[in-house]
Design brief:
The complex is a heterodimer. By secondary structure, chain A is an all-alpha fold. Chain A folds into 2 domains: 20-42 and 61-67 and 190-270, no CATH class; 70-182 and 273-341, no CATH class. Chain A has helices at 4-13, 23-33, 70-85, 89-107, 109-133, 151-177, 180-188, 192-221, 232-260, 279-305, 320-341; strands spanning 140-144, 147-150. In chain A, strands 1-2 form a two-stranded antiparallel sheet. In chain A, β1 (140-144) and β2 form a beta hairpin. Chain A is extended, with a radius of gyration of 26 Å. The N and C termini of chain A lie far apart (64 Å). The model of chain B is unreliable at 7-12 (pLDDT under 50). Chain B is globular, with a radius of gyration of 24 Å. In chain B, the strands form 4 sheets. A 6-stranded mixed sheet of chain B has the order 6-7-8-3-9-10, with helices on both faces. Chain B is an alpha/beta fold. Helices cover 30% and strands 23% of the residues of chain B. Chain B has helices at 61-67, 94-100, 117-127, 132-146, 161-173, 191-208, 309-316, 350-355, 358-361, 365-374, 390-403, 420-435, 447-453, 471-477; strands spanning 21-29, 38-45, 50-54, 77-84, 87-88, 101-104, 179-183, 211-216, 228-233, 236-239, 267-276, 286-294, 298-302, 324-329, 334-337, 408-412, 439-443, 456-461, 464-469. Chain B has 2 domains: 4-246, Rossmann fold (3-Layer(aba) Sandwich); 267-477, 3-Layer(aba) Sandwich (Rossmann fold). Classes of the chains: A mainly alpha, B alpha/beta. Chains A and B meet through α1, α7, α8 and α9 of A and α2, α3, α4, α5 and α7 of B.
């Protein structure tokens, strides 16, 4: 049965906004998008956190923190592209070193080393597994049954593993350079509704988790002799249905709050952005694009000239690598300059 | 900031002779409902007024206010004249309505749309397609007016309820409305946050010249700000001449219900030197807390936001574990009523809701029906829990917990946002529970309720109990903290 209040709104038809997504549908969509987080409820104890502690929202120090978001965005897109498409040992090593160095600089030694605990095994596993699937190459190392294990395919696996970990590291760097409000500013005027949806989800997810903990705590607090302790699966299902009802009900009010502040009043929303594109940003973009073009050229030449099969080519020293290394070290260098400037 | 009544940014300048709100012969009926909620309603609010609209639950306060905002008006039959600033409400489009009439809802949680404070402030302006430079200016101005700069970059989810509600007010005022409608804006706030909010509202009224209409069932804290007060009753609005009559305190328990003299009762729960924090990085919420509760009594815990009241209840409910010290609980059974009853509601009808734990906790339908009648829920069995009023929902949650027969009943803000009738029913239910030998421990901001219902009142401060006294002594001794 659908709550009557809900029903009336839908069937009898409250005034609907003429443009854009109807507010309530947007709310529901956001609720649905939060669903994957529901199963993370168990991570914390069921403590009702009603008296929220208020933390401070300081700006983290990341490279490009003083530029318009378009600058880090260009850097990140180019770097991720370079990393993911350059299957060449030297380039992968340089990219991995750059990503690691930036991790050490911004996230600290402990967290970066902690992540290496799973990243190094991943590289090893891919290196060991690859020869089992691709039996090509010319330097036979050993035989397992009928299959030969070749050095070339093991090196290829090692490079794949390195490439994968380097990409992960650069994605993490991307998250620190492009926080969500910068992404919002970039999306802003081209996709205002998507930008708003992201913002709403970011708002609803912590609320959803907090409520989930409250609901589970209420369930746990019921202590009656003879009552079997709540089965974790059932109590989570119960919590999910409580949360769904609660969320749907709230979405009605949130939709009203959105409409009362002019949601759908004009055909095209604008987006408030905390960043303006200044001449220095344009200069930075042009320089970065030129530098990036050079790095792409280097990667192209190095990758096309290199081959794993049938025999590994041996990379020779080449000035091009310096350009590539400089590109990968750029955020670290910029951050160091920033640090020095602020003492 | 120029005063909004002299402001011509939003288009036409209005002469002060035009009333802010004017209705003539307004009639409104919900579809399917027999009698209309509003009938022959004539109402007139002058510009610049700070008007209160009082009335009980279901009297039509919210309906009347939402009829003034066409985009959130409920579906139903409407007749009669309805004008805001001289313009017929039916002629206002979404844009005009958003620019002229601001609306603040009851629940601070639900009306915040965006993730960060600055984005929430800009939300309405974005909707109206205001240019970026103009938005920057409006957000800046409004932030300064409310002193929001310090938390402009905070996530809205981490704000306290009082700040959330203040942000909602600021976000609406960023649109520079001439008329501000508020539906029970402070019912979810603690008394200190309520004062703060009302003061901000008062400044918007006097300094900006914004006409303010507040619908409320508890007008007492607002009386000193109000310039006129209206009561809505039987579908009509009339002005209240005698403001003092609204400031009186209401009796919650019939005079016949006397509290038993405290004898030698056994202890039912105690915390000895309890220390608790939510994680290593945060501060201690409970700091060497020592407290003991006797059986057969109603205990009230009062204190400001974040003083550790709710945390103590979680410890007593065994959903949070002390890091140091001991919690002893003698009661055979216990249950916890959370601040928001929605955390307990899962079924499709009131009846199913009450019967949810029947098999596991051993009660039958007759008992459920009896309990529902006791808590004023009779006749609602087939309704969906979300179709009930806030007060009825709270009573339903309480009935559900009472049915499992807990010896120890823990309540977190049981009267938050409730009208007088529901508070009376809860007062009686708690007294009955204590009379039957049960123990009630409630954390509350409702000092009136604590004074009239509790056997003793403990004030919590900084993770400790500052004092425990019988209510009469407690309130006689308090200079700053009183109802």
């Amino acid at each position: 049965m659908i709550p009557q209040a809900y029903d009336e709104r839908v069937t009898i038809g409250a005034p609907r906004p003429r443009f854009g997504l109807p507010a309530r549908r947007l709310c529901c969509l956001c609720m649905a998008l939060t669903a994957p987080w529901r199963w993370r409820l168990s991570e914390r104890t069921g403590v009702p956190v009603n008296n929220m502690r208020e933390g401070s929202g300081g700006e983290p120090v990341a490279a490009f923190s003083m530029s318009h978001p378009a600058v880090p965005a260009l850097y990140i897109v180019l770097t991720l592209g370079l990393t993911m498409f350059s299957m060449q040992p030297v380039l992968i090593a340089l990219s991995l070193a750059g990503g690691l160095a930036y991790g050490f600089a911004t996230r600290g030694t402990v967290r970066t080393l902690g992540a290496l605990r799973w990243q190094l095994p991943v590289i090893l596993i891919i290196a060991l597994v690859n020869p089992l699937f691709s039996a090509s190459g010319s330097t036979e190392l050993l035989r397992i049954g009928m299959r030969a294990v070749y050095l070339e395919s093991m090196v290829y696996g090692l490079c794949m593993g390195g490439l994968f970990v380097a990409s992960v590291l650069w994605f993490e760097a991307a998250a620190s350079m492009l926080e969500y409000d910068k992404v919002l500013a970039l999306l802003g005027n081209t996709a205002p509704v998507i930008a708003l949806m992201i913002s709403m989800c970011m708002r609803l997810i912590p609320q959803f988790l907090r409520r989930g903990r409250t609901v589970l705590a209420v369930q746990d607090a019921i202590d009656v002799p003879g009552r079997a302790p709540a089965d974790p699966v059932r109590s989570r299902l119960w919590a999910s249905s409580v949360l769904m009802g609660w969320g749907m009900e709230d979405s009605l009010e949130r939709a009203d709050a959105m409409r009362s502040r002019g949601w759908g009043a004009v055909a095209r929303r604008t987006t408030y952005a905390r960043y303006r594109l200044k001449p220095s940003d344009v200069t930075a973009l042009v320089l970065l694009a030129l530098f990036g073009a050079a790095a792409v050229a280097v990667a192209w030449i190095a990758t096309t000239q290199y081959s794993f099969y049938p025999q590994l080519s041996v990379p020779a020293p080449w000035p091009g690598y310096v350009v590539y290394a400089a590109w990968m070290a750029l955020p670290c260098v910029l951050r160091a300059i920033d640090e020095k400037r602020f003492g | 900031m120029t005063r909004l009544d002299r402001d011509s940014v939003s288009g036409a300048a209005y002469s002060l002779d035009v009333p802010a709100i004017e209705t003539r012969g307004l009639r409104f009926a919900y579809p399917g409902a027999g009698a209309p909620v509003l009938e022959g309603l004539d109402w007139h609010v002058p510009q610049g007024a700070f008007a209160l609209l009082v009335g009980g639950t279901g009297s039509g306060k919210s309906t009347l206010l939402s009829l003034l905002k066409p985009e959130i008006a409920p579906a139903g039959e409407r007749a009669g004249e309805l004008r805001v600033l001289g313009e017929d409400v039916a002629d206002m489009d979404a844009r005009a309505s958003a620019e002229r009439v601001g609306y603040v809802f009851q629940d601070p949680e639900n009306q915040i749309v965006c993730e960060t404070v600055w984005h929430e402030m800009a939300f309405g302006l974005e909707n109206l397609g205001v240019s970026r430079d103009e938005m920057r200016r409006r957000v800046a101005e409004t932030s300064y007016f409310f002193g929001l700069e310090d938390w402009l970059h905070r996530d809205t989810d981490t704000l306290s309820g009082g700040r959330k509600q203040l942000l909602s007010l600021a976000a609406v005022l960023a649109l520079r409305p001439r008329v501000l409608l508020l539906d029970e804006p402070t019912s979810q706030l603690d008394p200190v946050a309520e004062k703060n909010f009302l003061h901000a509202l008062f400044r918007a009224n006097r300094e900006l010249g914004c006409t303010v209409v507040v619908a409320t069932h508890q007008p007492r804290p607002m009386l000193e700000y109000a310039t006129c007060t209206y009561r809505i009753e039987d579908g009509r609005v009339r002005e209240v001449a005698d403001l003092a009559s609204l400031g009186g305190r209401e009796e919650l328990l019939a005079s016949g219900t006397c509290r038993p003299a405290q004898g030698e009762a056994p202890g039912v729960a105690a915390i000895r030197e309890g220390w608790f924090r939510y994680d290593r990085a945060s501060g201690w919420v409970l700091r060497g807390l020592d407290v003991a509760f006797l059986a057969g009594a109603v205990h009230a815990i009062v204190g400001g936001n974040g003083c550790g009241k709710s945390t103590m209840l979680s410890v007593l409910a065994k959903t949070a574990k002390l890091q140091r010290g001991r919690m002893m609980r003698g009661a055979a059974s216990a249950a916890l009523l959370p601040q928001n009853p929605k955390a307990l509601l899962v079924a499709e009808t009131v009846r199913d809701e009450l019967m949810e734990w029947a098999s596991t906790c051993g009660y039958d339908e007759n008992l459920a029906r009896e309990r529902a009648a006791q808590l004023g829920l009779d006749g609602l069995e087939t309704r969906h829990p979300y179709d009930l009023s806030g007060g009825q929902r709270q009573l339903l949650a309480l009935a559900k917990l009472l049915l499992i027969g807990p010896e120890l009943l823990l309540l977190d803000e049981p009267t938050k946002g409730l009208d007088l009738e529901s508070r009376r029913i809860i007062a009686h239910a708690l007294r009955d529970h204590a009379k039957a030998g049960g123990t009630v421990i409630m954390a509350t901001h409702d000092l009136d309720f604590a004074e009239q219902v509790a056997d003793d009142v403990a004030m919590m401060f900084d993770g400790e109990i500052a004092c425990v006294e019988p209510p009469a002594d407690f309130f006689a001794d308090n200079v700053f903290y009183r109802a």
